[in-house]
Amino acid sequence: MFTESTDVVVIGAGVTGLTAATRLRRAGLSVRVLEARDRVGGRLHTDVVDGVPLEIGGQWVSPDQDALIETLAELGLETFSRFRDGDSVYVGPDGTARRFIGDIFPAPEKTQREIERLIEVIDARAAEVDPEAPWAHPRATELDSISFWDWLGQHTSDAEARENVSLFIAEAMMTKPSHAFSALQALFFAASAGSFSHLVDADFILDKRVVGGLQQVPLRLAAELGDAVLLERPVHRVEWDERGEGVVVHTTDRTVAARFAVVAVPPVLYPRIGFSPALPRLVQQAHQHQSFGLVIKVHAVYERPFWREAGLSGTAFSPYQVVHEAYDNSNHGDGRGILVGFASDVRADALFGLGAAERKQRVLESLAAYYGAEALTPVVYYESDWAAEEWTRGAYATSFDLGGLSRYGAAQRVPVGPVHFASSDLAGKGFQHVDGGIRVGREVADAILAATTTTAATDQARAS
């Protein structure tokens, strides 16, 4: 068993952990990063499948994601705009595909007006929520005790409007049925993105991509850290001092003693680590009330982007289709056409109950409902299944069950002695997104640096 000492040990080499580690190292502290996987990046992964580069995980950059945009500039990474010229497609409850331009689906006029009204209502309510402290809302307990689905039902009797508005947060973002999380959780999500209108506007929230893939962010951060990053080192035990005087972290072949630890993995993985002494009761309870959603990200590659020839942008939506949303995801400077689609929550449940061939057929038939029969014959087909990843177990981010956010939210980022918790799942602004992960990584690094400065000043005072 190899033993070493460092100032800070970071558990997890995703964008949050690597952001924290590089910030700490630049400030003069020694760091050790321990990653369970055989790669860095966490839920960011750009891979080559049958000769085609695909974004297996997170990929988009929106204009309000200041922390991510700053990091891209710092690392010298370029972006390109998502293709969006032409009409979008909406498939209604009758199965008919209709073209449209803008953000509001081409439902009956009365339903369109109702969708617009609901968006205004949610924007107004979300503006009342502080994304850094949604539990502080004066009606937090009330809003956290009703599901988003039931809350929408209180505000509209139009079934199609309710299903479409639900789609933007439930299936598209939370990847859970809207009866499984609260109205407070939904309003917090909207507030974290700046507004619900931002989530509705695909041209905003899915604005740009990184040339070469978004995983280049953690790859370049890790390159700066060099041999401070160790792969295939799952942490199974953390011993911490209740007086805040240090931690000892154990892997199968290494023990790392440090002044501080940063646990930079999704909350669903915390139980994989034994803590000694046990974490406080409220913290352990909070971990039991957070869970991932379920989503299949589907990549269909064609010899050319045929939908553009028909005047389509590639953007498609329907709460009634197996693939509830899809986009033109063609790579920069590549003549091949790529469609990316998503099937989440109960749709994903049903698909995973099928064999691989039948599942592929169902997905392609759903894409054909949007784009026509040519969508049935891709040259490459691939499914991103993050729930099957041992060190992820779902996507895109964890969220609380009913009542959990107001009860436990304030405790989720409070350090336990020298142990700090950090991930995009715990972000306020930028929740769920890479931007949020970077923000949290910066904040936890700054908190450790402040604690280090305070300790040094105290020690100096005692010495004098």
From TrEMBL:
* UniProt entry keywords in alphabetical sequence: Oxidoreductase
Q: Does the keyword Transferase apply?
A: no
Task: Look up the domain of life of the source.
Answer: Bacteria
**Oxidoreductase in keyword set:** yes
Do you know which InterPro entries this protein is assigned to?
Answer: Amino_oxidase (IPR002937), FAD/NAD-bd_sf (IPR036188), Flavin_amine_oxidase (IPR001613), Flavin_MAO (IPR050703)
Q: Which cofactor does it need?
A: FAD
Q: Give the similarity note.
A: Belongs to the flavin monoamine oxidase family.
Instruction: Please report the name of this protein according to its UniProt entry.
Output: NAD(P)/FAD-dependent oxidoreductase
Source organism per entry reads Kineococcus glutinatus
